[in-house]
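Why does residue order matter? Because the sequence determines the fold. Keep that principle in mind as you read this record.
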Amino acid sequence: MPGFNDRLRALGYRITNSEFAQHSLVTARAYAELMRLHRPIGTLLLLWPALWALWLASNGRPNEQVFVVFVLGVFFTRSAGCVINDFADRNFDAHVERTRDRPLAAKRVKPIEALMLFACLAVMALTLALTLNPLAQKMAFAGAAMIVTYPFFKRFFPAPQLYLGVAFAWSIPMAYAAQAGEVPRLAWLLFIAGILWTAAYDTMYAMVDRDDDVKIGIKSTAILFGSLDRTAIAIMQAMSLLALALAGRDLQLGKWYFGGLGLATLLALYQQYLIRDREPAACFRAFLNNNYFGLCVFLGIAFDYLFHL
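Structure:
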């Protein structure tokens, strides 16, 4: 049976094995960039709230299968979200300095290729979700719909960061559904904490591109809040920490948990220091620093249960 290169030659193409391998490598690298494999920060920021909820819903002993499904599901969901985001923004990204070299904006990947990659990632994420109980499955499909529609909210909704917060924090009630088979009041309190935290750090992220976004007509809370951006971020951070503290009180968590919240509070203050002059590079560092915020909260939860066993 003729190989792929033989069929190409039959059509009049001349291609060597080394050229084909090099082309395949370039294509794979572009797909990896489209999925943001070189920038795992988004995966981590999506993962931390899911882990908070899994540990809290299970009293520190999450089901192994559910744990694996959520970790892999976060990876595939975030990757799919990046691909559909870049597809939606492909005509905008070329006009923004930070994003103009993205594969779709730079025309290194065709739109149809991006859609096919998105479909594959979405199918893998939803296949994982189908291993969960019916309530968690329904919530997974709702979460998938939010991830897909988020990029388009930036066209008309003045606060898309809040919508992203709902999409990212949706893993909290979904984790409770998967682990405990129900979504109690406490899960919704944590959900509010996740929304506010996500909206706060994504506003920092939006501050990086504010000038470009104004020019091309993209909406963001950085534009909406204007000169009150730092104040709005501080309020959202404080409310998120308060909600987490109330959840810890209701669950009767101890010093390890509240110690983790204390460290997260110090990180929030440090982020306020970084964004004090609204300098884009510093705002981006503040955004990245939120990985440690999420980690501190999780370690507080994990250690509190560990030393109570």
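The chain has one domain: 35-51+60-306.
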